[in-house]
Amino acid sequence: MGLTRxxxxxxxxxxxxxxxxxxxxxxxxxxARGGGFQPSLVGATRAVDVLAPLVASTLAQxxxxxxxxxxxxxxxxxxxxxPVEETALTAEIARRGWSHTVSVRNDTFxxxxxxxxxxxxxxxxxxxxxxxxxxxxxxxxxxTARFPSIGRISGDWGGGSFLAxxxxxxxxxxxxxxxxxxxxxxxLPAHFGLTTMPELIxxxxxxxxxxxxxxxxxxxxxxxxxxxxxxxxGIITRQAExxxxxxxxxxxxxxxxxxxxxVVLGGSVLAARHPLLHDRVLHLLSERAPKAVPHxxxxxxxxxxxxxxxxxxxxEADAYGRLRTAWKxxxxxxxxx
Length: 337
Hints:
The chain is α/β, with parallel strands linked by helices and about 325 residues long. It has helices at about 40, 45-60, 85-95, 110-115, 160-175, 185-190, 195-205, 215-225, 230-255, 270, 275-290, 300-310, 315-330, and strands spanning about 5-10, 15-25, 30-35, 70-75, 100-105, 125-130, 135-140, 145, 260-265, 295. The strands form two sheets. A five-stranded mixed β-sheet has the order 3-2-1-4-5, with helices on both faces. It has a five-stranded mixed β-sheet with strand order 8-7-6-9-10, with helices on both faces. The radius of gyration is 21 Å and the shape is globular.
């Protein structure tokens, strides 16, 4: 049995990591999923340690057709926000000997690749709004636009975790009289079986409710907004403004405002297509970037990483269709909707 040209595709986010083994002809040979990837908290070495069992599991699924290092590894990683972080993570992954060559980029580029056509010059912008928010774009002749996206210190506003905190802030002020009345003051405590905001504040402060559960409040915010609550709707409107602002700034930097290019929307908050947020984003884009062609990507970003491995292997045209079909057959989505 002959050996197969293969590559590893990795999408590592704050909450989960996906690894796929891809043949150069587009066959999907193996997949594994694990926990979050947080080098900013634990360092590059311990973060990459999380990848090791997933890589081993994925390679094992291919059996004897794959031996030794694969040809290439494309890693799209959360918290690879600065060039110095990309360099450190590239060196650490290369040290593991999983592949002959390694490329590392921020995970927003995986979303972008998943939403771009498979042929022609890769040009477009992606905005991811999941736990956090980020934007990246590719222009003509390899031009790139991106943001540091490391929180408020780099000017960011939004994402599921941020929205949950913003809802808590408004609810606390409504309860004690410093802010406008809002149903959030009742809905947020009720989500955890509590009655008042002081009870919820105490439970969060004393860690009786773990910090990891705070993200559960973002869907509550959207539900309250859908009921017509003015404060909650204001938060959602602001999120739409930020999504469109990032997209239009990236398009302007890349000199793409005057031509029809994809604006890829993804991440759990945008992929949910909450009407208040989704419709507002589309409306604002139509005003500020009327040539943009927005679509929501529903496939996991690791598909973008897998497509990147085909790009780098100069794969045949039918390999892309084979890969997207394999993704769809596994119930993972084939791209945009």
